[in-house]
Design brief:
- The protein is α+β, with helices and mostly antiparallel strands.
- The chain has 14 helices and seven strands.
- Strands 2-1-5-6-7-4-3 form a seven-stranded antiparallel sheet, with helices on both faces.
- A hairpin with a 4-residue loop joins strand 5 and strand 6.
Length: 409
């Protein structure tokens, strides 16, 4: 239980607390040490906002584990802003303290998801395969700690609180904060791209701000992911049976489509299928359309990532190659429900960060095409386009019809 905040007018609103926890690169974890002495240590972390949880990693033995065994209660502090103002003998600060209970993560799936969150946060430009290999190498030596949060409090300097309260209505202040966050997001994307040698222009507009974006909820993402998965599986099955899509007869297309249509019906997804997906499962899609739909596994990858499954999203350089069984071990009627139970939607900030980055990646690819140049930095234009479609859909930009989501650059 946190102590009551004395100056409540300086309390940060929950979205600001979440933003600081998401953006922070390290914090101070406070535990109960030996003989009751406080034990506070700086540590890296990952914040899983949707689950209300912090993750840390450590060695298999040590002071942290002994402290947690004595008393699992803990607090974690992150400083979001710390600007000394010497002429006024003060500091303009914003900080957050999270309270909760620590535990060692024993579940293999949760441990893997937590390590991936940490790897993605601290090595975002490292290829996914390299991150996975590092995880495999260090797996037996890693202990993952979870802090299940019970309360989050934030506070800002009185000068910042007065500035927040002075000028605007709450709605205006939220809009201003959203615009500032969007500008910061754009700046981060540009830094990442410049580090990779990918051309970008600084005056390209910001994407939707968090307060105006129509973010898809978990159920919407689960159902769309199920439709995409069955679409791709139908195409792969057809190609394998016929020895290539170009050799598939109309009878083969109809028979294969009918099989996966029945699965979609058993999963309760018939009404969620797009027009082109329905045409495929009804055997009406021609070979050109089928070949185009085969790329949709790249879009599925994005939705799986948005549900905290599968690998992190690195830059779109290679096609997605991941065991299908990790997502749907079988096609039984309860398979979608089991997928749903594992799904935890990522935070709005994470979705918008990736949407902003792919928007600028696609600009670089389109620009290279206009000048008849090779894609920069080994980017794959087809993979990037499918990701752009999926991310625009996730943030509610570009229309409601999956088959015609706009991907402006």
């Amino acid at each position: 239980m946190s102590p009551a905040m004395r100056r409540k007018n300086q309390a940060l609103p929950p979205p600001d607390c979440d933003a600081i926890l998401t953006a922070g690169s390290s914090g101070v974890l406070a535990l109960c040490g030996e003989e009751g002495w406080p034990y506070a240590l700086p540590i890296s972390y990952a914040y899983h906002q949707a689950a209300g949880r912090l993750y840390f990693h450590c060695a298999l033995e040590g002071s942290k584990l002994r402290a947690i065994a004595r008393d699992c209660r803990a607090s974690f502090c992150v400083i979001g802003e710390d600007q000394v103002v010497p002429e006024r003998f003060t500091t303009h600060y914003r900080s957050v303290i999270a309270y909760g209970r620590m535990r060692t993560v024993e579940d293999t799936a949760e441990k893997l998801a937590a390590i991936r969150l940490l790897a993605e946060k601290y090595s975002p430009l490292l290829p996914a395969e390299a991150r996975e290999e590092e995880i495999r190498r260090g797996w037996d030596r890693l202990c993952v700690l979870a802090m299940d949060l019970t309360e989050i409090t934030g506070k800002e300097a009185i000068e910042l609180a007065r500035a927040r309260q002075a000028g605007a209505t709450e709605q205006e202040a939220t809009a201003a904060g959203g615009e500032q966050a969007a500008q910061a997001r754009r700046a981060r994307s540009i830094r990442l791209l410049e580090a990779e040698g990918i051309p970008c222009i600084r005056h390209l507009p910001c994407i939707e701000a968090e307060d105006t974006a129509r973010l898809r909820n978990r159920e919407e993402i689960v159902r769309r992911a199920g439709c995409l998965f069955l679409t791709c599986l139908c195409i792969w099955s057809l190609a394998e049976e016929a020895g290539g899509i170009e050799k598939a007869t109309r009878e083969m297309r109809e028979e294969c489509g009918e099989y996966y249509r029945r699965i979609a019906e058993s999963w309760g997804l018939l009404r969620d299928l797009s027009g082109e997906e329905l045409a495929l499962l009804d055997g009406r899609a021609d070979r050109r359309r089928i070949n185009a739909l085969s790329w949709r596994f790249e879009a599925f990858r994005v939705l799986a990532w948005a549900l905290t499954m599968g690998p992190a999203l690195d830059l779109p350089r290679e096609q997605f190659d991941w065991p299908m069984e990790e997502f749907f071990p079988n096609l039984e009627p309860d398979a979608l429900e089991k997928f749903r139970q594992r799904a935890v939607r990522r935070s709005p900030g994470e979705l918008l960060d990736q949407a902003d980055l792919i928007y600028r990646v696609r600009w670089a690819l389109v620009e290279a095409g206009l000048h008849q140049q090779e894609p920069p930095a080994g980017l794959d234009g087809d993979v990037a386009m499918e990701r752009h479609i999926a991310l625009n859909w996730l943030i509610g930009y570009g229309g409601e019809d999956w088959d015609s989501i706009r991907i402006d650059t």
